[in-house]
UniProtKB/TrEMBL annotation:
The protein's name in its UniProt record: DUF4476 domain-containing protein
Signal peptide start and end residues: 1-25
The species this protein was found in: Marinobacter zhanjiangensis
Keyword vocabulary terms for this entry: Signal
Lineage top rank: taxon: Bacteria
Length: 270
């Protein structure tokens, strides 16, 4: 009796699981796309073209080999973007856009990498795709939590990435101006949404970038900027820049306009 009840409960559990995770019905035309350095993308749209399974391989990224379920975003001129949640944000992984100058209409975008990758269709590899195996791989990885892990926002990694980009801007300005400058940010004060959706480097790196521009434009400015060794940056309700001894305190705002002009005018009064 106990065995019968256990079997019945197992059957009910499996039935409920199948209802909560309906099987994907893929279309008949999966596509294999290849690029340089071994990069390959598989795009397998669902029968109604509203979603697609995307698998990118040949890249140095945690996304490598993980089958993602992407939403298909329709764009102008029959363009479309295959978007999946990676690191806390919906991101385009593969984009199709008709091009008159490029040898391919497809582009792969790797989260965290600035340069896109041109990829083109490979008929032989496309014909060899087994969609049943692709769905099985997707479901297995879902059970392992692979996609869920990629979807979670990694705050520490986001801060590290922005810090490295700011350091590059500081290094360039220091070399051009002939004196060291370092930009610091109150990272703890920033929300996850700000870190994930704003280019913090673009905001907070603007002071050092403008210092470099002025040093290149006018050699005499190098003498003025020698007195400044640090830029402290944070976000506030309005744009503000002030000097405290050898430091510049820069308060920027997400909606600030004419940021570069304001910084330029201030720096020229040092």
């Amino acid at each position: 009796m106990a065995r019968i009840l256990a079997t019945a409960f197992t059957s009910i559990a499996l039935a409920l699981l199948s209802l909560s995770t309906p099987a994907l019905e893929l279309g008949d035309n999966p596509l294999a796309l290849v690029g340089d350095n071994g990069l390959e993308a598989i795009v397998a749209p669902t029968a109604d073209n509203s979603q697609a399974l995307i698998k990118l391989t040949g890249l140095n990224h945690p996304l490598d080999g993980v089958v993602m379920l992407a939403e298909v975003e329709q764009r102008d001129n029959d363009g479309r973007a295959y978007r999946a949640e990676v690191d806390g944000k919906q991101r385009s992984l593969v984009v199709y856009a008709q091009s008159y100058w490029s040898p391919t209409d497809y582009t792969a975008y790797i989260p965290g990498q600035q340069e896109p990758h041109a990829i083109k269709a490979d008929e032989e590899r496309s014909a060899a795709i087994n969609v049943d195996e692709l769905v099985a791989e997707y479901e297995q990885q879902m059970g392992e939590g692979r996609q869920a892990g990629l979807a979670r926002f990694d705050r520490a990694k986001a801060v590290q990435r922005q810090q490295a980009a700011l350091a590059d801007i500081d290094d360039s300005a220091s070399k051009v101006c002939g004196s060291p400058v370092s930009t610091s940010v109150d990272w703890e004060a920033l929300t996850n949404d700000q870190l994930n959706n704003l280019n913090i480097t673009g905001y907070c790196g603007q002071v050092a970038a403008e210092m470099e521009y002025l040093c290149l434009s006018d050699a005499s400015f190098k003498q003025q900027v020698k007195e400044i060794s640090e830029v402290s940056c944070g976000f506030a309700d309005a744009l503000n820049l002030s000097r405290h001894d050898q430091s510049l305190v820069f308060q920027t705002s997400e909606d600030a306009s004419n940021q570069r002009e304001t910084i330029n005018d201030f720096l020229q009064t040092l």
